[in-house]
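User: I'll paste a sequence; please echo it back and then give the predicted structure.

Assistant: Echoing your sequence first, then the prediction.
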Amino acid sequence: SPSAGSVTGGVREVLRLEAFAIMAAATTVYFVSGGNPWLYAILFFAPDLSFAAYALNARLGAIVYNMVHSYISAILLAGASWLLGIDLLWQVA
């Protein structure tokens, strides 16, 4: 079936609401901590540019795309920025 392997129904809605809540919280923290609005606007769509890695090969494309769309990557980047004290890295995270 076309939907095999994808989440449907109420669970799909819960996952979408969770993602929206995380985006809203991250956006709030970004601006409350003094983040640059122009950088936010640029970085908002930056993860979607990761699909360009598919031009090199499908396996690498999938790895890069999934890595930049993962919460854990952002959390690790934020942790590194905190440890290193680099404000720009925090904004990118």
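The CA atoms of residues 50 and 66 lie 9 Å apart. Residues 9-92 form one domain.
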